[in-house]
Amino acid sequence: MSAPAPSRPPRSGPSSTPSPVTGAVTTPAATPAATPAATPASGTAAATGTRGLDWRLRFAFLSVVWGFSFLFVKVGTEAFAPFQVAFGRVLFGALALLAVLLVRREALPRGARTWGHLTVAALLLNTAPFSLFAYAELSISSTLAGICNATSPLWGMALSLVALSEDRPTRRRFAGLGLGFLGVLTVLGAWQGFAGIDAKGTALALLASLCYPIGWIYVRRTLAGTPGSPVALTGAQLMVSTVQLAAVSALFTSAPTGFPLWPTLSVIALGALGTGMALQMQYGLVTEIGPTTAQMVTYFIPVIATTAGVLILGEQLHWNTPVGAVVVLAGAALTQARPRTPKPA
Predict the structure, then answer these.
(1) Which residues in 158-193 are b (16+ Cβ under 10 Å) and which e?
(2) What three-state secondary structure class fits 17?
(3) Residue 90's closest CA among 115, 69, 62?
(4) In 10 A of CB 52, how many CB atoms?
(5) Is the pTM of this model over 0.85?
(6) For a tag on the chain, would you pick the N or C end, based on fewer CB atoms within 10 A?
(7) Alpha carbon distance 60, 300 (integer Å)
(8) Which of 20, 61, 68, 59 is closest to 311 using CA atoms?
């Protein structure tokens, strides 16, 4: 029996929360804590699977894994074409989540319409941004790629003002948008004429970060209310992305001549840890501590990415990069601020 057509999300309630690195989206109806139909065999059980470990340790793990993702991409592109790195990323991520679904004996989503929307979501949230980041890191540092990724909430706020009527602009959010893009100009050294910055690579990384909010808006309008846990929906989404990138890789790249140890391990870790295990852990955090606190991991990712790039890959770091990154994160935080709801008398 086909799943019911996904309904439009309500105008009130929590916003969808896109994963800042993996491209997974937790919609209000798909979040275990917000789903009336959630059963112990679905969202709730998945969320509690790792509760034996303190949430702060899991939060730190997510920050490190997602921060290291840009280093993994950089190392992976040393031996594999960008499309191949993206393909390996979604392949191992899909395998990790399918293993979780197998253990939980949970089925993938049903219905041609649902899979059609997941196909578009996979393109916008996985296939396109993962490929763009991989191509960007051929010419820019993993540090800069990680900071460009942090602009995603800024793009999201700008787009939501146009595409989502329920997201009303406020002076604080407009200030955050302006502050964030000022931070981007600081990172790029605009006063120096962007000297030393590869324009093409930087543009690709910024375009990749723009893909996430576009995909988030699409999912919010089409898949909110779709039956199934976040793990099942994301696993299906990654399966579709794997097929997409397998086709693209076959058409535009030649088969790898070898599988060097570190690039191969980097791609496996990028998918299995950063796109598989970390997602499972994130859903548990959202249920346990709420989406607002769980989403704060976004602001640690560029810090970890910068630290890893400088200490492990020996990437150069000029003063304007960390200063600009702080300004970007401050602006992103302002754009995510919500007006306080007055307490009933």
Answers:
(1) bbbeebbeebeeeeebeebbebbbbbbebbbbeeee
(2) strand
(3) 69
(4) 6
(5) no
(6) C
(7) 9
(8) 68
Residues 6+ apart with CB under 8 A from 248: 83, 87, 127, 131
Query: Residue 92 corresponds to which tokens in the numbers above?
Result: 């191992």
CA torsion through residues 261, 149, 60, 277, sign = negative
What pLDDT, on the 0 to 100 scale, is given for residue 8?
Answer: 36
- Taking alpha carbons only, the member of 290, 246, 291, 233 closest to residue 100 is 233
> In this structure, what token pair is assigned to residue 280?
């499972």
- H helical segments located in the chain: 43-48, 55-76, 82-104, 112-122, 128-136, 142-149, 152-163, 171-188, 199-222, 230-252, 261-271, 278-289, 291-294, 301-311, 320-335
Q: Which two tokens stand for residue 234?
A: 């994301």
Q: Which residue has the tokens 């690709």?
A: 204
Which pLDDT belongs to residue 344? 54
The parts of the chain modelled with pLDDT lower than 70 are: 1-20, 22-52, 163-169, 191-196, 292-293, 336-345
Q: Rounded to a whole number, what is the distance in angstroms from the first to the last CA of the chain?
A: 47
Tokens of residue 312, six digits: 């492990």
Contacts of 168 (CB under 8 A, 6+ apart): none
Q: What is the predicted pLDDT for the residue at 25? A: 54
**Residue 192, token pair as written in the block:** 């120096």
